[in-house]
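Researcher: Please translate sequence to structure tokens.
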Amino acid sequence: MTAAAANHGPTPDQGRFDSPREIRAALLPEEVGAFDAAYQQALKLASETLSLEALQHTLSSWRRIAQMTQADPAGHRRMLAQAKRTRSTGQLPDDAVDWNQFRTELGV
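Model: Translation complete:
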């Protein structure tokens, strides 16, 4: 165990997604291709820079997606569908809140 691991303990909410294989298995089928591409790009960058920073960041991001997916697969699928509609039409969902209104509601 490294000193960093000993000092900081396990990553909260990391769940069972400790490896790229586990992360990939937890994703929706429609997201696997994007994961594979991001993972391969991060591996390539790691080999070129001799740094694992991009790889760790990529896996951390996809780990969160895997956790959200497993927590509510149907909800995650609806979110992906809505994002696709918004990208293709440019129209926000009917229940979307303007950024300034959102900030006001949060009190910031």
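Researcher: Any highlights?
Model: The chain has a mean pLDDT of 87.
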